[in-house]
Design a protein that fits this description.
The protein has one domain. The longest helix is centred in the middle third of the chain and has 30 residues. Helices cover 82% and strands 0% of the residues. The model has no long low-confidence stretch (mean pLDDT 92).
């Protein structure tokens, strides 16, 4: 049954246009959020959970909008859970790749000093928490790799895909429509 629904007919448009539109939209929103957090980084440095929650909520809103648009325009108002999840995942994958490229360029060329600031802040917090020099040294070796443009690039893709998977699983529950 799903195979028949997924097959394109001359009167039904492809979902590619909507996938790309919402992937680009979410990437632009994430870039704006990155630039805002960059401007207020001193105030937001220890608000990682809050910032992750904001990114997740934004991603879910974009996924819902994309899934509803695809359900309406491509599937004539009827969309299975797997179709909704697939659409959400495609938006998440393309958005993750585009956003990670921007993040890499940002931290490599535009604001490379920010990663050093975040490393210094992390070390300071570890010391303030009473960790031994050995623990701090070990933690900073690992953290140091993630605070490189390549490390941030890879962790952005990985984190975005995890959030996209969880978001797609959740939003698909609300955007699916059965006959």
């Amino acid at each position: 049954m799903d195979e028949q629904i997924d097959q394109l007919t001359p009167e039904r448009p492809s979902r590619k246009k909507y996938i790309w539109t919402y992937s680009i939209l979410s990437t632009l929103v994430f870039i704006i959020l990155l630039l805002i957090t960059h401007m207020f980084r001193e105030q937001l440095m220890d608000k990682n959970f809050l910032m992750s929650a904001v990114y997740f909520i934004v991603l879910c809103v974009v996924l819902i909008a994309a899934q509803i648009q695809i359900r309406s325009k491509v599937y004539s108002g009827i969309m299975s859970y797997s179709q909704a999840f697939g659409a959400g995942m495609l938006v998440s994958v393309f958005s993750a790749l585009m956003y990670a490229v921007f993040v890499f360029i940002f931290y490599q060329f535009i604001a490379p000093h920010v990663l050093d600031e975040m490393l210094a802040y992390t070390e300071q917090k570890l010391r303030e928490d009473g960790n031994s020099d050995e623990v701090v040294s070990s933690a900073m070796r690992i953290t140091g790799w993630f605070m490189t443009p390549l490390g941030v690039f890879l962790s952005t893709i990985f984190g975005h895909l995890i959030m996209g998977t969880i978001g797609s699983l959740i939003t698909s529950l609300f955007t699916q429509r059965q006959r």
